[in-house]
Write a structure and sequence with these properties.
Order of helices and strands: HHHHHHHHH
Bound molecules: protoporphyrin IX containing FE
CATH superfamily: Globins
CATH topology: Globin-like
Number of strands: 0
Largest sheet: none
Number of domains: 1
Low-confidence stretches: none
CATH class: Mainly Alpha
Number of helices: 9
Strand content: under 5%
Shape: globular
Mean pLDDT: 89
Helix content: 55-70%
CATH architecture: Orthogonal Bundle
Length: 142
């Protein structure tokens, strides 16, 4: 009887170990809103120091960009935010963004994420979610 009880306990223990951990959102894995704000600040710094990117942003409001960018990253990483900015097509229309500029922007974002300590694995998870937006941003003319 004691043996059976011990076996049952072991089985229960093992099944508890084998059961999958609850899935964490990318938002949680990134470190929540505070970390997304750090990414946005570092990204804005990168843009400010970049001669190819800054001209696109020189007439934009930094405060608005930061607010909407944070909401956007929060939303696409399944965080508890509602994106209240404009669509990617509307925002980037007629800016003349080509593939080189797009890739350059992604590099600046990667540098920003590295600066604030986002792991390469999480960087890739976020970039994978941004990649499909490329078609709404490059060569959009209205
Ligand atoms: C996946 C790539 C990108 C994402 C997710 C993204 C996201 C955003 C977001 C969320 C906003 C704020 C929208 C709003 O204010 O309603 C924004 C604004 C802006 N983006 Fe992007 N963007 C991307 C690529 C680019 C590229 C390649 C450029 C060109 C260098 C660019 C230039 C701008 C500019 C200049 C603004 C400010 C527009 C304004 O002041 O009205 N973005 N972007």
């Amino acid at each position: 009887m004691k043996l059976i009880a011990t076996l049952l306990c072991s089985l229960l223990f093992l099944s508890a170990c084998a059961s999958p951990r609850p899935l964490q959102t990318l938002y949680v894995k990134l470190g929540g809103l505070g970390m997304i704000e750090n990414i946005a600040d570092a990204f804005i710094n990168q843009i400010g120091e970049n001669d190819q990117l800054y001209p696109f942003f020189e007439n934009s409001s930094v405060d608005r960009f930061k607010e909407k960018f944070v909401e956007h990253i929060c939303m696409i990483s399944n965080g508890p935010c509602e994106y209240t900015g404009d669509s990617m097509q509307d925002v980037h229309a007629n800016m003349g963004i080509n593939e080189a500029i797009f890739n350059h922007t992604v590099e600046a974002l990667i540098d920003a994420m590295s600066t604030v300590g986002v792991s390469h694995r999480l960087q890739n998870e976020l970039l994978k979610r941004l990649a499909p937006m490329r078609k709404d941003i490059i060569y959009v003319a209205r």
